[in-house]
């Protein structure tokens, strides 16, 4: 990549550029709770330890809440330049929430730099979307480039409906990470690799990781110390694996700097931030300092931004509809919602459904249907809920929600209704279009209105 382009990309990024770390601030938006792998240094009760200190919990936000937070914080934090998604699980194990949040933020300010952090498993599937949303900085955590070492670090990897373990899991993860990094580099994205230094497991292997990522065109290497206090409750902490000494970390960084080509390409100032960190690195912003006036300003600006976002989505949909071939097929799609604006609710909590007619002519609201549970049914079992949803949506070919479990997918499919989470966190009409147009295109025998 041309040096001037690189310079402009890192100028305001506090992690990719040491000299920006005390001038520019970042905000992390905890919109990504799920994870698709299990690292042995992570306790999933807490944030993703690939960037965060273990034992820290961040409350999860919806994309709309995240937008609100950025609007309010921007009024109080000087030089807020980067918006990061780094958990509390994996950004790309929650693609709908991650991408919709960043799309909405684009409608707020094109100048904010979007940045995500991932274990890399789902990376190859999202390369085009990353480029389309304009994400120019991606962190991939890569702890080993040898599956025999990787198998000591990961308990399992969940990929395409299957759970892998041992060497097979580590090999699959590594293959996906390499493919993903190559795809990012070829699209001009700056890649940072995080490596957790685990004494006795990968400490002698760090140079091999550095050599491989240098070959792949990674921009900067960040070596993080394993954190393994007994109270973290991770597999490694239960096995009493020691944390590395300061000397071990310094030596590993020095060795990697030699391989990467300079000290600027080995991060020295990482703070292992929480998934909801705000401010300049090391100077955490206090949310209590937000004034009433800022909160009032936020709601005005938020509705303005959402209006802009709606127009952007409507234009995009119009273009897609104009190019759609199957004009005369019609199907019904139900979108579950809580805020009556987006597909923002999980299958389990879905009560209100906007039912749309989707065809080559576009998306039209037919009606709103509601499941009315009384108080005594507040904790209704999944089996009962499944039956009720399937009954209420008997004439629909798809239902969109933000998250759904395996059993719900399976049972609804048996009833002829496809559960679609790709439309999760999209605006209602767009969510219906995404699911409905796919059903029509698949040429499956869709239920028609
Ligand atoms: Fe956040 Fe990470 Fe982007 Fe930075 S943090 S997603 S690259 S904006 Fe930075 Fe924090 Fe270290 Fe991460 S100091 S943990 S390296
Ligand atoms: Fe935990 Fe992050 Fe590893 Fe997932 S990728 S298991 S959240 S450390």
Structural summary, described in words:
By secondary structure, the protein is α/β, with parallel strands linked by helices. The protein contains 13 helices and 17 strands. The strands form three sheets. It has a nine-stranded mixed β-sheet with strand order 10-9-8-5-4-3-1-11-12. α2 crosses α10, α3 crosses α10 and α7 runs parallel beside α9. It is globular, with a radius of gyration of 23 Å. The protein starts with a helix and ends in an 8-residue tail after the last helix. It binds FE(8)-S(7) cluster and iron/sulfur cluster (SF4). The site of FE(8)-S(7) cluster (CLF) has 18 residues, from β1, β3, β4 and β5.
Counting DSSP H or I runs of 4 or more residues, the number of helices is 13
* Classification by helices and strands: alpha/beta
Bound molecules: FE(8)-S(7) cluster, iron/sulfur cluster
| Radius of gyration over all CA atoms, rounded | 23 Å
Short description:
With 449 residues, this protein is of the alpha/beta class.
Summarize the topology.
Layout: H1 3-10, E1 25-28, E2 37-39, H2 63-76, E3 80-85, H3 95-108, E4 113-118, H4 127-133, E5 137-141, H5 147-153, E6 154-159, E7 162-165, H6 166-186, E8 190-197, H7 206-216, E9 220-225, H8 235-238, H9 246-260, E10 266-267, E11 278-280, E12 283-284, H10 292-322, E13 330-337, E14 352-359, E15 362-370, H11 382-392, E16 398-400, H12 406-414, E17 418-420, H13 428-441
Parallel strand pairs: 1-3, 3-4, 4-5, 5-8, 8-9, 9-10, 13-16, 16-17
Antiparallel strand pairs: 1-11, 2-6, 6-7, 11-12, 13-14, 14-15
Helix pairs in contact: 2-3, 2-10, 3-10, 5-6, 7-9
The structure holds FE(8)-S(7) cluster and iron/sulfur cluster.
FE(8)-S(7) cluster binds at residues 15, 26, 28, 51, 82, 84, 86, 115, 117, 137, 139, 192, 222, 270-273, 281.
């Amino acid at each position: 990549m041309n040096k001037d382009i690189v310079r402009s990309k890192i100028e305001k990024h506090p992690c990719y550029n040491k000299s920006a770390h005390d001038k520019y601030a970042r905000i992390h938006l905890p919109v990504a709770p799920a994870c698709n792998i299990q690292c042995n240094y992570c306790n999933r009760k807490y944030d993703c330890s690939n960037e965060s200190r273990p034992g820290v919990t961040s409350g999860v936000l919806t994309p709309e809440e995240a937008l609100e937070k950025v609007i309010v914080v921007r009024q109080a934090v000087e030089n807020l330049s980067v918006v990061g998604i780094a958990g509390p699980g994996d950004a790309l194990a929650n693609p709908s929430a991650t991408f919709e949040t960043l799309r909405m933020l684009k409608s707020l300010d094109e100048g904010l730099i979007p940045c995500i952090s991932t274990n890399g498993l789902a990376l190859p599937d999202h390369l085009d979307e990353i480029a389309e949303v304009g994400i120019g900085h991606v962190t991939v955590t890569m702890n080993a480039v040898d599956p025999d070492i990787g198998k000591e670090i990961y308990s399992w990897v969940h990929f395409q409906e299957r759970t892998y373990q041992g060497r097979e899991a580590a090999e699959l993860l590594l293959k996906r990470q390499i493919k993903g990094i190559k795809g990012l580099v070829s699209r001009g994205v700056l890649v940072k690799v995080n490596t957790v230094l685990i004494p006795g497991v990968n400490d002698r292997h760090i140079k091999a990781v550095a050599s491989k990522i240098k070959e792949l065109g990674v921009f900067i290497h960040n070596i993080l110390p394993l954190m393994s206090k007994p109270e973290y409750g991770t597999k490694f902490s239960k096995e009493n694996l020691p944390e590395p000494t300061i000397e071990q970390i310094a030596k590993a960084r020095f060795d990697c700097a030699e391989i990467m080509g300079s000290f600027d390409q080995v991060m020295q100032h990482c703070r292992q931030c929480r998934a909801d960190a705000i401010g300049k690195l090391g100077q955490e912003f206090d949310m209590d300092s937000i004034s009433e006036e800022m909160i009032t300003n936020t709601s005005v600006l938020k509705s303005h931004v959402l209006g802009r976002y709606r127009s952007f989505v409507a234009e995009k949909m119009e273009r897609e509809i104009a190019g759609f071939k199957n004009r005369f097929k019609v199907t019904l799609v139900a979108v579950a919602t809580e805020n009556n604006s987006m597909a923002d609710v999980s299958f389990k909590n879905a009560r209100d459904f906007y039912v749309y007619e989707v065809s080559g002519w576009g998306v039209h609201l037919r009606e709103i249907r509601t499941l009315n549970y009384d108080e005594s049914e507040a904790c209704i079992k999944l089996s009962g809920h499944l039956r009720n949803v399937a009954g209420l949506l008997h004439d629909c070919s798809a239902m969109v929600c933000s998250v759904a479990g395996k059993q719900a997918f399976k049972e609804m499919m048996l009833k002829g209704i496809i559960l679609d989470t790709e439309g999760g966190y999209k605006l209602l009409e767009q969510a219906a279009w995404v699911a409905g147009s796919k059903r029509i295109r698949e040429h499956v025998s869709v239920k028609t209105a």
